[in-house]
Amino acid sequence: MELSTILRDHRVMYRAGKTMTHTYRIHQLQKLKDMLNRNEKRIYQAIKKDLGKSDYEILMTELGVLYSELDHVMRNLKEWMRTERVKTPTTHKGAKSYIYKQPYGTVLIISPWNYPLNLSITPLIGAIAGGNTAFLKPSEFTPYTSELLADIIADTFEEKYITVVQGGKEVSQELLELEFDYIFFTGSQKVGQIVMEKASKHLIPVTLELGGKSPVIIDEDAKISLAAKRIAWGKLLNAGQTCIAPDYALVHESVKNDFIQALKKELSSFYGNQPMEHPNYTKLIHEDHLNRLEKLLDNENIIFGGEADRENRKMNPTLIDEPSWDRPIMQEEIFGPILPIRSFSHLEQIVDEIEHSRNPLALYYFSENEQKQQWVANNISFGGGTINDTIMHIGTPHLPFGGIGASGIGAYHGYESFRTFTHRKSVLKQTTAFDLSFRYPNSKFGEQIMRKLFKK
Fold this sequence. Notes:
Ald_DH/histidinol_DH, Aldehyde Dehydrogenase, Chain A, domain 2, Aldehyde dehydrogenase, Ald_DH_CS_CYS, six-stranded mixed beta sheet, Aldehyde Dehydrogenase, Chain A, domain 1, 20 strands, about 450 residues, 2 domains, aldehyde dehydrogenase (NAD+) activity, alpha/beta
């Protein structure tokens, strides 16, 4: 069936008002949760085939967070949907002001390959909670997971309500030519620019979850061993193929050597002396990605790792010492198991460092000094982050997740997902019991009264 025809069917269903009730939305969210529960074994198998992820990593980063998100949304949805009564100014005496939560209509969700289940279903939860119908376009680079999503969603939902569309670049381009009511995209900055350009032709609102070079800062008073453990974990989750992975480290010069030794120790502790043979170590998405990462290592000072296994598409955890900002490895998001390490002597220096790749999606700061923690949070622009840990801020439905500037537009998770997929519609209900005649041009004392009112 033509995509335009399916879109027309979605519009018919939406306009019938079926998705507007709390009862319907909760029922669909429960069906989604049951779908995940029922197909857990198949989900593990598909993601393993695509990315070689371990069971523990799939549970932690793909399935577990979805169950948490679904429970949180279902528990709070009635309150979020409720019409809000807000204040009305004196100039509108007799009127009442309300904000209604209106679905956009039919939304398009384009998801990436690095977390093929999580980053497909999390925005879908928001779309359902908001009362929309949805098209989901999963990545062609994770074919087993994409095929599974298409299969289990078709078994669970009506096609005119949720439709999974598979295919490559050409299919994405075809979808972007259609007039959806909202587009939610997760992926690279380069493709994000294309999505925004296409959406602008029809004035379609967008959320763009992109990426960038997210720094991790280790100050002189940090607990070095603990910092090294948490950074190693965050960097090597999914073999570094995480949009909020620590992309590079800024380490105070007084603790740099200690940090490097501690980091090497933790890397070996996690994955042994042969990480590429470890069953919990994820593979890279495709050969071109491995080639790109290997090229980034050219002429760099490798102080740990650097080896690659082409047959199994893996690369050892790799540390680079003091690369300059004009090097390719510092010019683009790495998205792999490579961590460049640069040093600083004063905390204020990190502002200039980060300015080379400003507005990162995430930032991590390790320090025991609360005053300096506050200074970093107040003075550096970034999408979101964690103090004395990595990655963890993405795992709570109580915090919005999103970028700023080149790292993204808009946010989601928990209430923010509901808000992203709904329009806050303002309605003023005016009284007919009396009329404020001073607003009309023939009012004798209209100007005098308005001057008094507006000066209050």
